[in-house]
């Protein structure tokens, strides 16, 4: 079961995510990020947005994944709810995000995320699965 929790931080906010696989942990990190933006219960997953990112290592790949999703949100005016990674390695990710255009009548934007940071960034394999930690500049 995928899950995440918020990380308290002095000026910013973060998400700690868990997954049985690294793909699940990345998907859950994305769900956590979008839960900061809006109520996921109000978002429909009607439209697919393909995502492909590359990076030099796992940690940077997580930042690139989340930055690409944030770019989709900002440039296309959509909220994302569901995330699926089809392929992932230490340096490449191929997946999709699902959501819908922002509807001011149904969607209240909770927080403005300016950027995904590298501060205290972690991607770690544990006995029980994978853990990620990422802080957002808000």
Could you explain how this protein is built, in words?
With 138 residues, this protein is of the alpha+beta class. The chain has a single domain (3-137), classed as Archease, Possible Chaperone, Chain: A, domain 1, CATH 3.55.10. The chain contains two helices and eight strands; from the N terminus they run E-E-H-E-H-E-E-E-E-E. The chain has helices spanning 22-37, 58-76; strands at 3-8, 13-19, 47-54, 78-88, 92-101, 115-116, 122-126, 129-137. Strands 1, 2, 6, 7 and 8 form a five-stranded antiparallel sheet that branches. Strand 1 (3-8) and strand 2 (13-19) form a beta hairpin. Helix 1 runs parallel beside helix 2 (58-76). It is globular and about 45 Å long.
Please render the helix and strand layout as text.
Elements lengths: L2 E6 L4 E7 L2 H16 L9 E8 L3 H19 L1 E11 L3 E10 L13 E2 L5 E5 L2 E9 L1
Antiparallel strand pairs: 1-2, 2-8, 3-5, 4-5, 6-8, 7-8
Helix pairs in contact: 1-2
């Amino acid at each position: 079961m995928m899950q995440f929790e918020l990380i308290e931080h002095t000026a910013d906010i973060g998400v700690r995510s868990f997954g049985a696989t690294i793909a699940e942990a990345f998907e859950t990190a994305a769900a956590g990020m979008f839960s900061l933006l809006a109520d996921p219960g109000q978002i429909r997953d009607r439209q697919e947005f393909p995502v492909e990112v590359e990076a030099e290592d796992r940690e940077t790949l997580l930042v690139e994944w989340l930055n690409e999703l944030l770019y989709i949100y900002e440039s296309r005016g959509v909220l994302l709810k569901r995330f699926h990674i089809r392929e992932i390695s230490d340096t490449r990710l191929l997946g999709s995000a699902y959501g819908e255009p922002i509807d001011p009548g149904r969607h209240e934007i909770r927080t403005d995320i300016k950027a995904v940071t590298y501060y205290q960034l972690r991607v770690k394999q544990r006995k029980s699965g994978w853990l990620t930690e990422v802080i957002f500049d808000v």
